[in-house]
């Protein structure tokens, strides 16, 4: 779910897209 990183940058701390 890479979209999650771009669609929700606020949760970046929980899951970093890279």
Automatic annotation (TrEMBL):
Source organism superkingdom: Eukaryota
Full protein name: Uncharacterized protein
Lineage, highest ranks first: Eukaryota, Metazoa, Chordata, Craniata, Vertebrata
């Amino acid at each position: 779910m890479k979209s999650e990183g771009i669609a929700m940058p606020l949760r970046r701390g929980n899951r970093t897209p890279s």
